[in-house]
Amino acid sequence: MIRKVLVVRFRRVGDAVVSSVICNTLRLNFPDAEIHYVLNEAIAPLFEGHPAVDRVIPFSERENHTPRLYLRKVWRVMRRGRYDALIDLRGTLKTSWFSIFAPGVPYRIGRRKWYNCLWFNHRVTFSAAETVSEVRENLHMLRPLKRERPLRYVTAFDLSVTEAETAAFREYMKECGVDFSRPVMVCAPLTRVPGKEWDKARMREVLARILREYGAQLVINYAPAEREAAVELYEAMGRPSGMFIDVEARGLRQLGALLSNAGFFFGNEGGARHMAQAFGLPCFAIYPPQVSLRKWLPHPGERNRHVSPRDYLSSDEWNRLTDAERFDTLTVDRVWAALRPMLAACLRH
Q1: Among 160, 199, 200, 193, which residue's Cα sits nearest to residue 291?
Q2: Confidence check: pLDDT of 129 > 70
Q3: Domain boundaries, the chain
Q4: What are phi and psi of 2, to 5 degrees?
Q5: Strands 243-244, 217-220: parallel, antiparallel or unpaired by DSSP?
Q6: Three-state SS across 154-180?
Q7: Which residues pair with 169 in a beta bridge?
Q8: Claim: this prediction has a pTM higher than 0.70
Q9: List of E strands, 41-82
Q10: Class of domain 163-346
Q11: Are the folds of 4-147 and 163-346 the same?
Q12: Any idea which fold 4-147 has?
């Protein structure tokens, strides 16, 4: 009987958001089970009140980087938890301590690796020849639980904030000058991950076209460390009246509230895009060449679209170029041609 489950995720925002399909599937199939979700402390607040998560277990940066503190906390979690199932989505030597400290857990599920046969009693294998979506890969980890009952899978991931949080942020946006009688877009033109940011000058041109042709208001989302780059972007575009760089989301729950008040997401592929999709926004993302569309574009369709160098390069061309050269093939006109039909459909005014 499955009465209590621990899902170990850690990692970044996008990983945590997409991996929540596991919690949703567990809730559907074991509605009376208690589901705990292990995350990095900065991400944990995003899942407070999530209907498929009964408890979020956060690990701080200090705990993650101090072996003594990390091991002590893992020991406490496993000894007090008395779990029936442990699903370790990472399967690293570091996360393996969750299983090592609780050998009596009936289902200790992890990815099959050469070194982990002693602590996982259910090791899940993935085909090295096939790239599958992150959603499908996550749900594959639940297969051992078929011993308990036939499983029905939930492929959708979702997030929410309270009505009060949404309303409060809406008032803040109004104070910053946002006019809700006009379309509101959240834009992510910046990223701290090397190689994932589209050319800044080209991004500025696309943003200028959106302002010019659709009269949309662009709320620029950025991390605190990216503030200087956001100001540079704003200044380089001539401080347009429809662009907002001072509507700051302090923390992921405020970013959720911002997304709840917007009607469209556009920008570089990353965690903010996955959050936008989880909040139900139409999303258009620019994918760098090193990011697999099959793996990291969940549920592509009318409301979730992309542009990628892979759309324009033959296999021979792809193999001849470096990642930087591949990314450079995404011209303004190519991105605009892919983006414009979606803007026309979603930003009618």
Answers
A1: 193
A2: no
A3: 4-147, 163-346
A4: -100, 105
A5: parallel
A6: CCCCCCCCCHHHHHHHHHHHHHCCCCC
A7: none
A8: yes
A9: 55-59
A10: alpha beta
A11: yes
A12: Rossmann fold (3.40.50)
